[in-house]
C-alpha cells in the first residue's frame, strides 16, 4: 500500500469513529427516553389498578345494599350501610395494594396471634418467670 492509500484509510477510519460516537450518543438519548416512557406506563398501570379496585368495592357495596333493600324492604338503610362498608373496603384494598398497610400473615391470622409480636404469649411468660 502506498502512503496516500494509508492516509485515506486513516481518514475514513476517523470519520467512521466520529459517526459511531454520534450514533451511540443518540442511542443513549433514545434509551433514556424509552426508560422514562416505561416508568410512566408503569405508573399509569398502577393508578388504573388502584382506582379500579376502589371503584369496584364501592359498586359492590352499593349493589348489595340495593339488593338488601329491595328484597328485605329495609328502606335506604341497607344501601347506606353497605355503601359505606364498600367505601371502607375500597380504601383498605387500595392501601394494601399500595403497600401502606401490611396484610397479616395467614399463619398468624389462623392462630389469633398479633403479627407484631415475635412469639406466642406462653413462651414469653415462661422466659419472664424463669421456667
From TrEMBL:
Basic and acidic residues composition-biased segments: 106-131
Presence of keyword Transport: yes
Keyword Glycoprotein carried by entry: no
Keywords recorded for this protein, A-Z: Hydrogen ion transport, Ion transport, Membrane, Transmembrane, Transmembrane helix, Transport
Pfam families referenced in this protein's UniProt entry, alphabetically: ATPase_gene1
Region (Disordered): 105-131
Transmembrane segments: 50-68, 74-95
InterPro entries according to UniProt: Atp1_alphaprobac (IPR016989), ATPase_put (IPR032820)
Primary role: A possible function for this protein is to guide the assembly of the membrane sector of the ATPase enzyme complex.
Family: Belongs to the bacterial AtpI family.
Record protein name field: ATP synthase protein I
Annotated organism of origin: Shinella lacus
